[in-house]
Records
---
Amino acid sequence: MALFDMRLQEVHNKLVGKELTVADLVDASFNRIGQTDEAVRAFLTLNEEGARASAVELDKQLAAGGERGLLFGLPAGLKDNMVTEGLLTTCASQFLRNYDPIYDGTAVKKLKAAQSVLIGKLNMDEFAMGGSNENSSYYPTRNPWNTDYVPGGSSGGSAAAVAAGQVYFSLGSDTGGSIRQPAAYCGVVGLKPTYGLVSRFGLVAFASSLDQIGPITKNVEDSAYVLQAIAGYDHMDSTSANVEIPDYTSALTGDVKGLRIGVPKEYIGQGVDPKVKEAVLAALKVYESLGATWEEVSLPHTEYAVAAYYILASSEASSNLARFDGVRYGVRADNPDNLIDMYRKSRSQGFGAEVKRRIMLGTYALSSGYYDAYYLKAQKVRTLIKQDFDQVFEKFDLIIGPTAPTPAFRIGEQVGDPLTMYLNDIVTIPVSLAGVPAISVPCGFADGLPIGLQIIGKAFDERTVLRAAHAYEQYTDHHQQRPQL
Amino acid sequence: MSITLKDVEHVAKLARLELTEQEKEQFTGQLNAILKYAEKLNQLDTEGIEPTSHVLPVTNVMREDENRESVSNETALKNAPDEEDGQFKVPAVLE
């Protein structure tokens, strides 16, 4: 069995039993990257020297005995929009191609405190804007299941690296589906926690009212462990939720008897690939057999979510990305005429097409005369979408549907048609607007490409989401399938 | 509402972007398509609905005003494209 297919507890036991060292794990990671990353292109920057130095330290600590961190010795990859002190953080943008952060983001600090080993920084759509990784300004990441296909996005590198066995786990960030959709396309487990559960400090902001960091792993148990390590209040993030963090792994009982599941008819209706629908219905049969019940429900404002999202997220992005002015960091254009010209040239040379498009859309939506018609209207529709979820959750414990309407598409297939691309997020976006947690777990294949099941919970009820995902996983083997690379 | 090339030029100016002629044309078409799609929001009656700017019930998070360690001048300037005498240096603001 490959090292990274072992359960976390098993790895721990082998480390303690001296059958394995952290150096072995780190070697395995870099060897696998060496073998596969020419095809997958998940990584933007490797932290080889740093990772090997940490391995030496951790192995010393292991020999000395004593307390070990929750994620001790586990090779981890980070989406390249999480700032890492002394390690390049580019957001897959040319604007930040030389950005060498002076601090670690909170999630990064927490991973270090849990003693995982940072292997490198993972490819993404530029500034997390996109759903295919084709918007990386460096190179597109490819789907490990079929390298002619996209891995999804924007955390495409994070999902592909885990699927390809290059790292034990990774972190991604999700604004409208950017953890869940690539996890679905790559056949791995991706969790978007409740908005505010994981600190955004040190996550380069895209849309601040939606951005949320979460784990991408091979199984649900690992997802619970990683979430445990990164969740928690942070005074450095004013939108951090000050809530008590429960124990997540103890929720994984395998028991879903009596759970009430709502299945939105809008999520399995028009536009959903029949094979995806079939896989979701088969998963619901598994839940039935385990003693849960499900019935069809309605989230009536689903069809408005994509429109509201693109107005809101682009508006927030246009404001957040104003900081990239070529003054304090990033790449400054040569020979500007004056200060304003320097801003203009640096931004125009540094940003790719999708980033410019969203800045333009957001700037327009916020501009004088259009604010009420677009931005305020979209915020009101967001309220209606959130109310849809509130109403269903009065009667149901969970909402289940697909993570994406189709499996992964071919590289290049949807380039040049932003609207079609945006509609891939039609069942992840409403969840983001409502701010509630959701996980994507593998639930089958269509023509050799993975399908994701999306399990959505009440705000801060990650325990029930993880419990249901874990129970399903115990009775299926989709998550144990590995791509041939 | 439909966006003209002139609108695109105006918005680009606001956003501090310099677009090529080709980009201007492309964005005019694409933004029109996206905004046309966004007009479906107008099918909904949102009279009396409060806007949601944020899902958590938190506002104005305060902390004690106390001295804390901050980054050194040298560290703060580490990524500066240009600097002089411990400060960020920019081109002339006024001609």
---
Amino acid sequence: MYGIPGMVARRLVQLVPVMIVATFVVFSLVYLMPGDPAVTIAGDYATEERVEEIRRIYGFDRPMLVQYFAWLGNVVIGDLGRSLFSNESVLTLILARLPHTILLVVYALIVGAVIGIPLGILAATRQGTTLDKIITSVASLGVAVPNFWLGILLVTLFSLNYRWFPATGATSFFEEPAKALYFATLPAIALSTGVVAVLARQVRSALLEVLGSQYIRTLRAKGLSSGSILWKHGLRNVAATMLTIAGLQVNRLFSSAVIVEAVFAIPGVGNLISYSALNKDFPVVQGVALVLVLVVIFTNLIVDVLNAIFDPRVAAST
Amino acid sequence: MNQLAGATTNGQESLLDIQNLTLSLRDQNGWVEVLNNVSFSVKPREILGVVGESGCGKSMTALSILRLLPPRDSRLGGRIMFNGQNLVDNTESQMSRVRGRHISMIFQEPMSALDPVFTVGHQIEETLMRHFRISKKEARERAVAALDSVGIASPRHVADRYPMSLSGGMRQRVMIAMALVCEPQLLIADEPTTALDVTIQAQIMDLLLDLADRTGTAIMFITHNLGLVAQSCHRMITMYAGQVVESGNVREVIANPRHPYTAGLLSSIPDSRRARGTLPSIPGRVPSLRAMPQGCRFGPRCSHAVPACEQPQRIELAGHREVRCHRWEELQLERVGA
Amino acid sequence: MEEKKDVTTNFYGRLPNLTRRSLMAGTAALGGTLLVPAMARAQAPQPRTGGTLRVVMPYNPASLDPIAGRNNPDFNALLMLYDALISFDPKTLELQPMLATSWEFADPTTLVVKLREGVEFHDGEPFNADAVVFHIDRCRNYEKSNVKSDLTVVEKCEATGPYEVTFKLKFPDASLPATLADRAGCIVSPASVKAAEGGNVDRNPVGTGPFKFVEWQDNTLIKLVRNTNYWGDAPYLDAIEARIINEHNTAVRAVTAGEADIALNMSAQQMAVAKRDPNVVAEATPSMIYYSAFLNYGKGSPLADVRVRQAMNWALDRPVLNQVLWGGLGGGNCSMFPSGFWANDPETENYYTLDVDRAKSLLKEAGFANGIEIETHTWADQAAVQRQEVVSAQLAEAGIRLKVTPSQPAQAMQFFLNEKKGHMLLSPTGGNPDPATAYDRHFAATAYRNAAKLELPGYRELADASLNTFDFAARQQVLYKMQRFVLENALHLPQFTSAGIIVRSPKVHNFDFSLLQRPRFHKVWLEA
């Protein structure tokens, strides 16, 4: 796999401009958002002078670009700054909360894959039958179902009605893994519907394409059983597609996590960024954006590496 | 050129005996008959050429023999006798033991016929290990030997390569190696050289015939190229619109075609001796599957047609020949210089 | 309230209500619990000492330094940690002694406050006059202090005894004691301020309150533990864990699922949901917060004409607004105060009732026979949009069309008050302990919320009187007149008074959200 270390190195280099662009875009958006953090900090009963005073103290009166580069300069030396409101270190805040969100996302991805991939395989191997049509329609629904609605439904049924699962909260995976998974189960299921739907559909169409290819005919002509053709050759050929899609889902899951975290009162980064964005707590929003960009890029990198391992065509083109 | 070309192989038990094979396929408009009463046989070690225009049913016949058509949308009638068994009656599981082991098939498009995510060596080993109880190491050795036998240089290195890094010619060699590695009794080769460069075509043909001779494999060689058939086959059959219209010893058929269609095919071969003029071709077109004439299917295009041709034509025998034309004895058909 | 109540001349100058309760309190003060009928005591469940109260609330305090924060919900946590100089009765807002044992205007510009002895801060430092002086100075000078404007009336604050503090005022202000019941009066330990970097105690509060600070995970959890050294009766609860859950419905679910004991600051929607569950108790109590619209009646605005403003007020059907928008739990009238509040005049409480014809004829008189369009700002959240839609629909019946721009609260204020864009801002407001402050903060020429920065003729006399009348009954009359003045001149567009809504487990006892939604947890106890 001569190409892989090279690919990794190239990706790491690409990381820098991507992070700058992403954080700049986020910064601009938050900056342009209506609302003035000075007013928020100053409070309901503040006078105009007080608001001005706060603007001066925090440096909001400087031009946007200056503020952005000041922030960037600090990041380079590893200082993500402090929350405007709580004065807590942004890095500490994020590190405390990131594990909850990552657990949620990974759990949802696994649930989604465990349900979605078999459904896709089933639909592909039973193409045209009623079962296929059912799976395809359910898959379309899955994309349409709003996560928060499903979350509320799950909570009402399984937490309030049957006390099978907790309604709110999360615990640390590092300290109590079983308990953490228990708390994360309903949220992960609520979050996974999109993944199930997309994976089922894409696996189905990728597998259909593969099963319809010429080389499958050769394999049959060689005398391989249909099981062997499907599970060994078919899946290996769709592995690259599946991985790429799963990787893309990760991006989507992080944004949907915001909503699920609100419904289940999970103290993750989704909750952190939405609360901070509303308050225009710039340093926190920027910090989270930066970390999320990093996470997404690394996920994509892992997916690409796995792709290269599974599919020699990908390895050759890197 | 194969020295056995033209030699007869009479007096032996058939290896493959196809009797009144009928095939119907289903598309969105319903069922349609694609093969009608196809009958022919292949003797052990024989090279049989199957010629005809595109769409005449040659490939369908091949796929029917190996039962590679989708079961829900195909219906087979008649018998395909092989090694005492009627393949039409076989279950999928039974067929999978025949395929690749007793009857192999190679296809026209080598570029896309191999699984891109496994090495070529692995794919050959896979065939071996499917059909024989041997160790991985043993399979590996045999696979490398197979690659060597098809004339691939550095077979051990090539075995670790992926199909995409090989040329079309090399891929076809790999396909041949894979098809013959279990030493099948019959190899069905569906236009194996059509997609290759002309310069390579001859090499591949020679390789194929040579190997088949060594492993004792009969070949059913499907092609539209009469020239190749003339050079390499013992016997040939001509197919038209889903039916066999002529069969017999290659030399005899070519010297003395008995069916107007065969004659037409022969005269359509571009001949460098006929330097000038337009390329001769058979006027008219193959009738559509759903609008087959009741009588002779070639009738509408035949310059020798008479009213009696509107009756269904049966197979008539002429020595060791079969012809589907009731006028076979009377017609003097143009022949090509032997 | 079982709190010891000194029979003293509090500001209102009248004796505490001679209710059965206060009688009991009186006898208790005389050491006579034996006189309470045994029957009465046996029927009520006995308070239990122990347990951790699990609170959920939707708003994260900006700061646990009382003078650096800004939002009313901060008080949920603040009153666990701090005592104010002066407290208030949760139901009547009548001022009560707390860290101050008594207070008195020696003359209209001098307030003398006597302090309680034997009180210590959580860090062991003594509470005394020096501490109070330090605190008041900090309120006036600390760069992050949000209460500077509350204390502009103070010229000087000095210790005139080890347990006595005297305020010299620039002008008479009868509402100063109420201010000392608000943020400015919550005394922060001077030692903690001195020890903190930049004097910033946002995150590590030290007060004299019934509970001590343990931990604060921002926007997640605040942990407190019983102050065993409390100067008053020992708190019943061992500890309090306050979780911050931004989503209101999720907060209720936490209570329903048994994962929390009480959810604070809920809205009418949660009340409806919780009422269906027999295992939880949902309570709505009167509130000093009311929903209104600030009007810009300056020159050039269509609202400069009083008839237009009056027309708007006649066009609203307030009982319907209350029913639809607050589940009928608030007060559907045009008063700024809840019914029964001492400064609320029952005669003018319903000054405006629905009269679309009158509204139309007033508009016609003002020259808007074909109706009028008013540029309006409003908040952008779902509940605010709903309020705006209902109000718009009602006004439209009289030909008053609102052209609405939604934005975030702080931004809406910015547009309307600073940039003078638009003519009106729909907003909840109120929550001031003293009614005079309420008027001052909305209608005085310098008031932040007065977009036009105008005072109508007649206002100033009444406003001054409300501040320098010290006799309770007389003051009340002044405030009644002020209420009438505001309504006659239609200085704003009141819609309804709200209610404070909480959802709790039946095991929680003695909880009172209070008229200001500033609950004290001192005497709250939890059944096992």
